[in-house]
Amino acid sequence: MADAACLPAPARRFNPWPAVIFIALAVLALLFLAPTAGVLLSSIKTTRDIALGQLWTIPSELFWGNYAEVLGNPAVHRYFLNTALVTAPATVASIALGSLAGYVFAKLPFRGSNLLFLVIVSGMFFPPQVILIPLFRLFNAMDLIDTLYPIIVIHTAMGIPICTLLMRNFFATVPNALREAAILEGANEWQVLTRVALPLSLPALAVLATLQFTWIWNDFLWPLIFTQSDEKRTIMLGIVNLQGQYSVAWGVQGSLSLIASLPTLVVFLFFQRYFIKGMTMGAVKG
Amino acid sequence: MERENRFWRVILLALPLAVFAAFVIWPLADSFHYSFTNWNGFNPDFDYVGFDNFLKIHSDKLFLNAAINTALWIVAAIVVPTGLGLGLALLIDSRIPGGSVFKSIFYLPICLSAVVVGQIWVWIYQPDWGLLNTVVEAVSGESFNYAWLAKPDSALWSVILAWSWQQTGLSMVIFLAGLTTIPEELLEVCEIEGARALQRIRLVVIPLLTPATVVVIALNVINSLKGFDILYTMTGGGPFNSSDTLAMHMYNESFKKYLMGYGSAISVVLFLIALTIVRLYFRQLRKVDELHG
Amino acid sequence: MITLNRRGALAALAVAPALLLGAPAFAQGGDVTLTHYFTGEFGLKLFNEQVAKFEADTGHTIKNSPIGHEDFKTDILVRAAGDSLPDVFSYWAGARTQFVVDAGSLHPIDDMWARDGLDSVVAKSVADSATMYNGKRYLVPFNYHYAGMFYNTQVLADAGVSEMPTDWDGFMALCETLKAAGVTPIALGSKYRWPAQFWFDYLLLNTAGPDYRAALMDGSAAYDDAEVKAAMAMWRELADKGYFAPNANADTWTDASDKVARGDAAMTLMGTWITGYWNGLGLEPGKDYDFFPFPSIADGLPGSVVGPVDGLVVSNDGENRAGAEAFLSYMMSSADVQASWTSGYGALSANVNVDPANYNEVMQRVSTVVAGADVFAFNYDLATPPPVAEVGLSMFSRFMDDPSQVDDILAQAAADAAQAFTE
Fold first, then answer.
1. Range list for CATH 1.10.3720.10 in chain A
2. How far apart are CA A264 and CA A256, in angstroms?
3. Is the Cβ–Cβ distance between B12 and A189 less than 8 Å?
4. Which of A133, B243, C74, C350 has the fewest CB atoms within 10 Å of its CB?
5. What is the Cα–Cα distance from C280 to C289, expressed in whole angstroms?
6. Residue of chain B with shortest Cα separation from C249
């Protein structure tokens, strides 16, 4: 990542900059870590300690009861499984559909395609609460309430705008000459897309996979509306439901949310190596 | 050839458009039609009231307040994470040890759920024993118990800060990816010319990062609408509606006052505003494209 | 080659939606579907134990769907709009239930009520105020709460207070004593607005009386009336004298309760659920905390108590009505369920067969106070229609932010409430 750096130009001649930058980053990192540290602290304290205003003190002894409670709870295991069952297919499907549409907008534009693109992209800009009721009625009519399918479908549909936008912009940077050469050799558009354009688009795919995975994993509105029995609930609902009518189990909530954030962190660490090279997503020529 | 193209357009677009139309466009249209009714959500019966709901927006003081807050929120959600993310990316990209550790630290907040992030920031802003005021007291040596989230002047900005904290990492990783595209030769030219670091960033790096910036801004705008959850946890739009955004206002009218018709009217207006912003964004984008050939 | 691929692409197009949508339905016959807001680690476990008793005793099975308090409101509204309410759901008695009844979403339970003899089970005062809507019965009062002045016994003892005030002068004197002793007299956590409503409720009920308050709640009186102004002036006096802990709007009700538990403040006006919360933190009823009723103010007014009723209702959409009615009847009539639920949850039972000895000593005295009251009134946001409640709740938190603006705030509230009543 550091091979193309422009910043520390004088660094090779004399050396204060790396140290200064390192210290600046370290200070910023500490500031950034403070809130996360708060979650960590809440997870190793009892609800009573937190209620008595002891959140921000360093505990004299660690309380692991919250983690034991979370990890030993079979309901939590099921929440994780359900969340994975929703997140993985919806991430893949939204990126797949966005790639299809993005390819057409980038490589096969037609009269009115810009307008269509505009409408699709605008589809990201409304609060999801707007379509709660129509969607509930729709899936109710299909008898799919209290299954995971509506959540998968909606995250797929709601992911189409961002995936189409990013994939279109990325495909636009794939040289037209490549496509034309492939077509001259007898390939069709499907083959150009899957064998030429997509392999070149690994960075965009990796970014989208990370983003979509994180967003879908952390969502709780759709699971709230479309699942009813505890066996179908997802991890975010598990976290929210720790807030009772008249109390909140802070410690358990903190530990559960830290555990719940691990998959998204792993996904980021795995995919980030592909973020590099050729994130030249400009070119919105139509 | 054109016939062939037409065929593939249909094949490739059919599924994404069908899914999008069925599960986004149709529900939106269905919901928008309630903006012409006085439906309360529970009652199966309702009347069509023409443009009454839209006229009501005119006299709704809370709407104006929420619209201004939404504008502030979107602008801040673009400027702060983009600026901070760029700064962090430049620092991390500068061959310092531990770069990937720093990158993970700054990215970490995105992985946490909005509910928990909101709660932890409530504890940071807590007036009596919160982290922020404790630090202020330690530094100033005076007792300090300003209630950041409870005062109309600071509530919205306090939430925006928390939001920026969570979103900066995303901008940073995209900028880091963008930085890898800047060709080595250009940097060497920089060296020969001996341009100062800051000047070089401004004149060479930032222009070359335009493609990444375009993506970052788009993501930040989209994300700003997901800010509902964190705002809901931290202030719930309070104190007394001072930190309401349009999404929150629409939610309150629809789900707390049971005025579904009026709530729908608000979301129609919100959608029209969004459409305008997207068009402006595209227009800017085309200009950028022309500049870059 | 292209033809072949076209065919392949078309086939893929046809299959994909089937994969996405052709999922098996999950319909289950015979269950009673139930959605409720008794969540949280503790509440949910306790509630599930009661459900298990019902299942064991009756053979019915419950399909249970707990949802956190705030999200519950959204969920129920969406499901009502989709004509897909569960067989049974929990709901707040009063204006909210009235709203749902008016929308035709609930099924009346008069037959069940008569058949199972609930008249001889449910305390009459609660039955009269909470279960009847538009002349029919719709709700069983699963539990109810009472709002009173809960205090830290140690703090009051340290300040030399041994006798609790019963009238307004006594209350002001108590606050002054506490303040002089260096303790903040009153904690209030009005971040989510509703905890402030109990102040408004009691001040108005004890100065203008329940009849006037009822008129204000149904729109036939106005928020800038002299009666409201007088009540608000008393509230303002408390604030101006510095009796409230600063930054009420920064705290939730649990923050305020924590302040009292820590001894940073002496007392808080809150519902009996605070006993459940405090017990959960390890405080001992009677020893660490206690309560006294809100002091009476004007002479000659009926003694009022304020609180919410958590009800269970049967929906019109449900498929298993027999099971739903059996559930309501059982949860209401079983003295065992009622006793273990209310004593564990820090609530009161409306079941006359529940022996008060089941309660802890503080709750025993609470139940005596409630039994001796002339009027049981719903708290503000359950007493007035939801759109109006939004106006009033915002008014309270605005007032707590800057009590000196009270005249402007009332004028504004009067206008907004008048508008909200027309909606």
1. 73-274
2. 14
3. yes
4. C74
5. 13
6. B150
Do C73 and C173 belong together in one domain? no
Structural domain includes residue C180: yes
What span, in angstroms and rounded, lies between the C-alpha atoms of C47 and C63? 13
Question: Could you list the pLDDT tens digit for every one of the 286 residues in chain A?
Answer: 344 444 444 445 566 777 888 888 999 999 999 999 988 988 888 878 888 777 888 887 788 888 988 888 888 999 999 999 999 999 999 999 999 999 999 999 999 998 899 889 887 777 788 888 899 989 999 999 899 999 999 999 999 999 998 899 888 888 889 999 999 999 999 999 999 999 988 888 998 999 999 999 999 889 988 998 888 999 988 888 777 666 677 888 889 999 999 999 999 999 988 876 544 444 333 3
On chain B, the residues whose CB falls within 8 A of the CB of A165 are 218
Q: Cβ of B12: how many Cβ atoms within 10 Å?
A: 25
ipTM associated with this complex: 0.88
Distance CA B15, CA B22 (A): 11
Given a contact cutoff of 8 angstroms between Cβ atoms, the answer to whether B191 and A9 are in contact is yes
Report the CATH architecture of B60-258.
Orthogonal Bundle (1.10)
C192 and C175 part of one domain = yes
Q: Chain A residues with CB inside 8 Å of C258's CB?
A: 51-53
Architecture of the domain delimited by A73-274? Orthogonal Bundle (1.10)
As a whole number of angstroms, the distance between CA A264 and CA B200 comes to: 36
Task: Say whether B177 and A279 touch across the interface (CB within 8 A).
Answer: yes
Same structural domain for residues C79 and C169?
Answer: no
Number of Cβ within a 10 Å radius of residue C298: 13
Q: Which element (helix H / strand E) includes C124?
A: helix C124-130
Q: Is residue C11 part of a domain?
A: no
H helices, E strands: number in chain B: 15, 0
Is C19 a member of any domain?
no
CA pair distance C272, C292, nearest whole angstrom:
12
Q: C269-278: buried (b, 16+ CB within 10 Å) or exposed (e) per residue? A: bbbbbbbbbb
- Give the whole-angstrom CA distance, residue C336 versus residue C325: 18
Cα dist from C124 to A167, B168, C335, C363, whole Å: 67, 59, 16, 20
Look at chain C and report how many structural domains it folds into: 2
Where helices occur in chain A by DSSP H, the ranges are: 16-43, 47-51, 65-71, 74-107, 113-122, 132-141, 149-172, 176-184, 189-191, 198-200, 202-218, 221-226, 235-240, 250-271
DSSP tag of C296: B
* Claim to verify: residue C319 and residue C231 sit in the same structural domain: no
State how far the Cα of C323 lies from the Cα of C32, in Å rounded to an integer.
6
Q: Which residues of B touch C390 (CB under 8 A)?
A: 252, 256-257
End-to-end CA distance of chain A: 32
Q: Do A104 and B9 touch (CB under 8 A)?
A: yes
Residue range of the domain that includes C138:
32-143+308-353
Q: What burial letters (b/e) apply to C36-60, b meaning 16+ CB within 10 Å? A: bbbbbbbbbebbeebbebbbeeeeb
The C-alpha R_g of chain C, in whole angstroms, comes to 24
In this structure, what token pair is assigned to residue C258?
């924590």
Q: How far apart are CA B70 and CA B92, in angstroms?
A: 32
| Owner of token pair 């018709």 | B261
Q: A272, B271: Cβ pair inside 8 Å? A: no
Most distant CA pair in chain B, distance: 78
| Burial degree of C87 (CB within 10 A; 0-12, 13-18, 19+) | buried
* Model pLDDT for residues C248-305, shown as the tens digit of each residue: 999 989 899 999 999 999 999 999 999 988 998 889 999 999 999 999 999 999 999 9
CATH code: domain of residue C205: 3.40.190.10
Q: What are phi and psi of A166, to 5 degrees?
A: -65, -45
> Are C236 and C189 in the same domain?
yes
Both C398 and C295 in one domain: the answer is yes
For residue A8, give how far its alpha carbon lies from the nearest alpha carbon of chain B (Å): 6
Same domain, C80 and C114: yes
